[in-house]
Automatic annotation (TrEMBL):
Residues 23-274 form the EAL domain. This is Diguanylate cyclase (GGDEF)-like protein. Coiled coil: none annotated. It comes from Catenuloplanes nepalensis. The chain holds residues 464 to 739 of 741 of the full protein.
Length: 276
């Protein structure tokens, strides 16, 4: 009966997510992934507009599954959030990424680090663990950006308190996928937000017309009025980069600049940018 339940549950979730049930990683595998050294961190450069200078990186986790090959995060992060394994995965990603960015900074590259944090991780003690990790790696509070989505519940006092503690020390809080949720504006007053990441669906609409630019332009105006920074996500073409620059957007991320890549490939880009 248990197995039948699990199979039905997986099939239902696969239907909801549009994934193949046979490809769904099992929770049991996932809880071993950290311990067995199957996770990798890739880094996607964040660049300034219009020149494309790399000023930061976003850490994005990958799972090298022994049978399934590389499993993308959207196929296992939701499962990890359900099982709670996201706490261990998130802590591991933060630790790896802090050490890597500290090494790049020691080599003379002035970079910040952005990490994704799930609502499940925003529990008592998180901020203290983040501070300890930064200090162990030799990074300053302001070198770190914590990215959260609107899946954080603004009426969850523990989550809001942890974000406040981070923000008070100077860790910046970014609202990821901004504009795609239901109560976007409420988040801006309820959470201590420093940065808005313009969701890539709005960047994809940029086509040189005022209608195409409407949402991106509105988010940029809003962030200027609220003294927030902005990062445009999913910039794939020179035309989009130029249009965003024209709208006053300073930071951008996307395949036009660089894909997420292993650390050594980022090192290559950085040494071209800042020759020793
Ligand atoms: P996200 O935080 O919105 O990350 C950006 C995603 O957009 C990445 O997908 C990246 O590869 C993709 N992307 C970047 N530039 C472009 C572009 O120009 N065009 C298009 N079409 N896509 C672009 P990825 O790496 O598959 O990650 C998917 C999501 O998984 C992330 O979305 C984030 O929500 C989650 N995730 C990844 N790593 C972690 C992690 O360590 N912890 C948590 N909690 N979530 C993570
Ligand atoms: Ca993100
Ligand atoms: Ca995003
Ligand atoms: Ca997303």
């Amino acid at each position: 009966l248990r197995l039948a339940d699990e199979a039905m549950y997986r099939a239902k979730r696969a239907e909801r997510d549009g994934t193949d049930p046979d490809m769904e990683p099992l929770a049991a595998d996932l809880s071993d992934a950290v311990r067995n050294g199957q996770l990798r961190v890739h880094y996607q450069p964040i660049a300034t507009l219009p020149d494309g200078r790399i000023v930061g990186v976003e850490a994005l986790v990958r799972w090298e599954h022994p049978q399934r090959g590389t499993v993308p995060p959207l196929s296992f992060i939701p499962l990890a959030e359900e099982t709670g394994a996201i706490r261990e995965i998130g802590a591991w990603v933060l630790s790896q990424a802090c050490r890597q960015v500290a090494a790049w900074r020691a080599d003379g590259h002035d970079l910040h680090l952005a990490v994704n944090v799930s609502p499940r991780q925003l529990e008592p003690g998180l901020a203290e663990r983040v501070f300890a990790e930064l200090s162990a790696a030799g990074l300053a509070y302001r070198d770190l950006i914590v990215e959260v989505t609107e899946s954080v519940r603004v009426e969850d006092p523990v989550a809001v308190d942890q974000l406040r503690r981070l923000h008070e020390r100077g860790v910046r809080i970014a609202l990821d996928d901004f504009g795609t949720g239901y109560s976007t504006l409420r988040y801006l007053t309820a959470l201590p937000v420093d940065i808005l990441k313009i969701d890539r669906s709005f960047v994809a609409k940029l086509d040189g017309t005022p209608e195409g630019a409407a949402v991106a332009e509105t988010v940029l105006r809003l962030s200027q009025m609220m003294h927030l920074e902005t990062v445009a996500e999913g910039v794939e073409s020179p035309g989009q980069a130029a249009e965003l620059a024209g709208l006053g957007c300073v930071n951008a991320q996307g395949f036009h600049f660089a894909r997420p890549m292993p650390a050594d490939e980022v090192s290559g880009l950085l040494s071209e940018q800042d020759p020793a």
